[in-house]
Amino acid sequence: MPIYCYKCTECGKTEEEFFPIDDRKLVIDCPDCGAPAERDLVSERPGRLGSTEAIWPCPCDALGVNPDQCKEAHDDSVRQGVPTDFNSDGNPVFTSLSHKRRYAKTQGYQMDG
Ligand SMILES: [Zn+2]
Q: 40 alpha carbon to ligand 1 midpoint, in Å?
């Protein structure tokens, strides 16, 4: 499933969601404040729209694990050939879109693009 990125119009929180292509949404509710979060194409496609340095490394909420399982998840990512660090919130930190795509694949997700 493709990953879609959203940015809250109120608090600025960024959120990533998986949706089947047919169910993709232009606006979701911000999980923090409930305000509308609009599709953020810059985060989705950093390579196509200007500088990548401003966006990567990028922690990804959508692929997060329980913070207690960071070490386990890291060891697992190494075993699968896509070494990935996790931040203290349990979110994987990707250094590039291809890194994110390869990691998502090890978790059974297929990103488009
Ligand atoms: Zn918000």
A: 14
Closest residue by Cα to residue 62 from 95, 31, 96? 31
CA of 65 to the centre of ligand 1 (A): 22
Cis, peptide link before residue 57, omega less than 30° from 0: yes
Question: For the chain, what is the mean pLDDT?
Answer: 80
Ligand 1 centroid to 1 CA: how many Å? 24
- Residue 104, pLDDT score: 86
pLDDT at 7 over 90: no
- Look at residue 46 and tell me whether its pLDDT is greater than 60: no
CA-CA distance, 67 to 75, in Å (whole number)?
14
Ligand 1 centroid, distance to 13 Cα (angstroms):
6
